[in-house]
Amino acid sequence: MFLAACGGVDPNSPLGKRKAAFKQMLNVSEDLGGMLRGRIKFDEQAFVEKAAQLDEVSRLPWQYFEEAPDADKSSARDDVWQEKERFMELARELEGTTARLVQSTVQQPLNPDVLATRVDLVEKACENCHQEFRVY
């Protein structure tokens, strides 16, 4: 009740769960990119763990797009619900890029060039969906 009065989002609502999953994806992908771009010290084990975490969290938010949210609180365009098939296609593309990133962490030592390409593809998959379905 207090959240509604403040204009906040109920963390247990579908919208709240989507926002939490997307925030977690952003934080983990920023850490991965940061390691590859020299903003964060590269730690091979941490990279492997974060890649697996990103793959796992990349599969979470889609289940919470079943109901249309309050338009004034969501960053999603109405097209998400009107073009659900296309939206889910882009979601699956993201999942594929995170899975390939994890596959690239299996062989030790890690190849930074391959990892950079994989992280770039993950970032592009996010951007592609944002361009079509996110309100900025």
TrEMBL record:
Keyword match Electron transport: yes
Superkingdom assignment: Bacteria
Keyword vocabulary terms for this entry: Electron transport, Heme, Iron, Metal-binding, Transport
One Pfam family per UniProt: Cytochrom_C_2
Keyword Zinc set for record: no
Gene3D superfamilies according to UniProt: Cytochrome c/b562
UniProt protein name: Cytochrome c
Organism in which the protein naturally occurs: Thiopseudomonas acetoxidans
